[in-house]
């Protein structure tokens, strides 16, 4: 039996949440998706998670919501993490941190699929070793299911790529989040693990990583403080679709996904846009 798992990159604010509400249900039906994983650490005003935004994205069709270095940006998320097993914080945060870093979710077709959330350490804040954390959790989850997906929320592409090779043959898929730019290196590694360095961003692309252009340019040009407000136009939902063999957990295919409203965004001309 083939199992299809769709994973979407960092949801940025209201535009990101709304495009999932509009387009994700239809995508789930059309592609017969069994499980949806969404990185939601930026879905409340562009940074952090609230109970209302969590519920909105879950109602859109997300089965598991992962996070990253902004997970504790808003204090109300602490009780939410304790109550909601579908909401994850990085597993390589200290054990005393609120919440959990992995879950074994039941997919729409009744099979069990493990999801692990990690945060990188290169150019990021303090955290325990993501490789050792992954090694321990994957071994435990494989006692229940061979189908496991890992979100490595990291800045450095080298750290994400290394994680893919480290877990090759032990998990179904490894994908990166955090940089908000979808990469074009989808591959099935020799051991059968599907891999993509970054899913990209679910949010407004007519801006700078989901923020309005002018304040970001002001910051770069002057080094003065600026308030980075959410952008609003050219909203896309970017991610990847993994097809996995249920019996072995091996990835059969991985493809990039871009969901957009009809007519949204600029027209592509040659290598650029107008």
Question: Could you please describe the fold and organization of this structure?
Answer:
There is one protein chain. With 274 residues, the protein is α/β, with parallel strands linked by helices. It has one domain: Metallo-dependent phosphatases (Purple Acid Phosphatase, chain A, domain 2, 4-Layer Sandwich), CATH 3.60.21.10. The protein is built from six helices and 15 strands. Strands 1, 2, 3, 4, 11, 12 and 13 form a seven-stranded mixed beta sheet that branches. The protein has a six-stranded mixed beta sheet with strand order 5-6-7-8-10-9, with helices on one face. Strand 7 (148-153), helix 5 (157-167) and strand 8 form a beta-alpha-beta unit. The longest helix has 19 residues, at 13-31. The termini are far apart. Residues 267-274 have low confidence and may be disordered.
């Amino acid at each position: 039996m083939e199992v299809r798992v769709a994973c979407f990159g960092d949801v940025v604010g209201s535009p990101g949440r709304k495009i999932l509400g509009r387009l994700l249900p239809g995508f789930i039906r059309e592609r017969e998706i069994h499980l949806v994983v969404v990185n939601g650490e930026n879905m409340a005003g562009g940074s952090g998670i609230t109970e209302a935004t969590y519920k909105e994205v879950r109602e859109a069709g997300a089965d598991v919501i992962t996070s990253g270095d902004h997970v504790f940006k808003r204090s109300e998320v602490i009780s939410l993490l304790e109550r909601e097993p579908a909401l994850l914080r990085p597993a390589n945060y200290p054990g005393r941190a609120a919440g959990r870093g992995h879950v074994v979710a039941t997919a729409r077709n009744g099979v069990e699929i493990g999801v692990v959330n990690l945060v990188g350490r290169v150019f990021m804040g303090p955290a325990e070793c993501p490789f050792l954390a992954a090694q321990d959790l994957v071994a435990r989850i494989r006692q229940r299911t061979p189908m496991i997906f890992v979100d490595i929320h990291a800045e450095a592409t080298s750290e994400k790529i290394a994680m893919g090779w480290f877990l090759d043959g032990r998990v179904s898929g490894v994908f990166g989040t955090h940089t908000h730019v979808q990469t074009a290196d989808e591959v099935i590694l020799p051991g059968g693990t599907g891999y993509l360095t970054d899913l990209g961003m679910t949010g407004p692309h007519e801006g700078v990583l989901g923020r309005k252009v002018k304040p970001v340019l002001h910051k770069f040009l002057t080094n003065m403080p600026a308030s980075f407000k959410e952008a609003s136009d050219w909203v896309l939902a970017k991610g990847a679709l993994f097809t996995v063999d249920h019996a072995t957990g091996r990835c059969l295919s991985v493809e990039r996904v871009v969901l957009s409203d009809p007519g949204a965004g600029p027209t592509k001309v040659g290598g650029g846009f107008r």
